[in-house]
# Entry
Amino acid sequence: MLPTENRLRRREDFAAAVRRGRRAGRPLLVVHLRRGSPRPDSEGRTDPHAAEGVAPPARAGFVVSKAVGNAVVRNRVKRRLRHLVRDRLDALPPGSLMVIRALPDAGGADHEELARDLDTALQRLLGGPS
RNA sequence: CGAGUCGUGCGGGCGGUCGCGGCGGGGCCCCUUCGGGGAAACCGUCGAGGAACGUCCGGGCUCCACAGGGCAGGGUGGUGGGUAACACCCACCCGGGGUGACCCGCGGGAAAGUGCCACAGAAAACAGACCGCCGGGGGCCUCACCGCCCCCGGUAAGGGUGAAACGGUGGUGUAAGAGACCACCAGCGCCCAGGGUGACCUGGGCGGCUCGGUAAACCCCACCCGGAGCAAGGUCAAAAGGGGCGGCCGUCCCGGAAGGGACGGCGGCCCUGCGCGGAUGUUCGAGGGUGGCCCGCCCGAGUCCGCGGGUGGACCGCACGAGGCCGGUGGCGACAUCGGUCCCAGAUGGAUGACCGCCUCCCGGCGGGCCGCGAGGCCCGCCGGAGACAGAACCCGGCGUACAGCGCGACUCGUCUG
# Structure
């Protein structure tokens, strides 16, 4: 799973990633990625000591609507995605914000199918022209 | 052995790799006003459900309110208990169903009043003459009786309709009949005796002879009910502001277009707070509370209008509780009480898991073996599939609903054997 410091925790972070980031859609999910910015102000709430030299970690959040399934299904999708993202966290630029939105078919997909779609989407966002 | 009734337990297991959250330890290291603060490895420990669900009841807890009375509104509805409380639970009563174990009942009042009872049927709520039956009169036919038709009257025993036709059976009686009268039975009301805390039961007597259903229709009766909810509420920091909802313009991007998006700018409306100005008001009282309204009571110095101005968290509550397990005692039981023992999720874009293998269990296919005349049954191996319903968010007690499978224990009926 993802440690807390690698998760999106605020409404503004979600809004920033979804509205200002690039987007790549797949049948099962949509990935929004906002590349790491050189730490704009306003981060007064993050630890001041960490702001010195260490690069801020990449963070990810998940949006799974009720169209995907009931609470049990939604939780399972989120957990699978979190595990998948954890293994791919190193590939993301530091400080970037990522939001993964699960589409209705994600509820019926297995682990492998989710991984394939996520990899394809990430490849398009990272490998493409920056 | 077969069929069934009730209660109750569990709701996959083991292992491997990689992870997440809380608490306790641990301290590489970082900051420091030298008081302290933060914090990585690593170790230990705990980490979803029987329904966590629906949010339908009842409480705890928190804040607001708390002279009283009336109206309105909501709820409950056999009796007696249990409980913090309940619409829940237990026991019993009554009614209904079942051979039985048992099950079902929104189970106060229909002689307080109003309303409604479809269809069928002649007639359906101070009942009702269609056919039939009986009496009288007239006509036809005939010697006459009988018969047929019409009119008047009597009749609820018979036919037919219906969920239901104004008690049932037998008799007396009569032109034919009828509780018109009689006996027994059923029902209703009243009285008495006995039993029970009580609902009620048992027995006896009397009466008029009987007088539907529906109250999850209005209504009546008895009893109960302040309001909001953890986004309750509180502490700290920060700022004079904070929150919500529309519109227009410019540049750029996507698109064939319609349209959509990003960034920047302008301006509007609503709620609340602050500043400024104005109006009004302070025992001749504005306004507010008493969550609906009225009377009354209480608080009481503000209230209303206009203008101005632009993005925010942390912590507590928050987990030791009407608590779980074991045993004793009291009670038919729900439950109460005593002793011992245990600590058992606390997230906040929301942890409690992801992946893999084996086993177990169910289903299907293939192959082999055994039993049987046979339909078929059993065992072994391989392959494939399936393993439900469902995720805590302040906490408890219930109810209701969903659910693949696997058990366990009582009891009933039937059959066979002894």
About this structure: The mean pLDDT of chain A is 70. Strands of chain A lie at 22-25, 29-34, 59-64, 97-102. The longest strand of chain A covers residues 29-34. Residues 1-4, 7-11, 13-14, 19-20, 45, 47-49, 52, 61-63, 70-72, 74-76, 78-80, 82-84, 86-87, 111 of chain A lie near RNA strand B (CB under 10 Å from a C1').
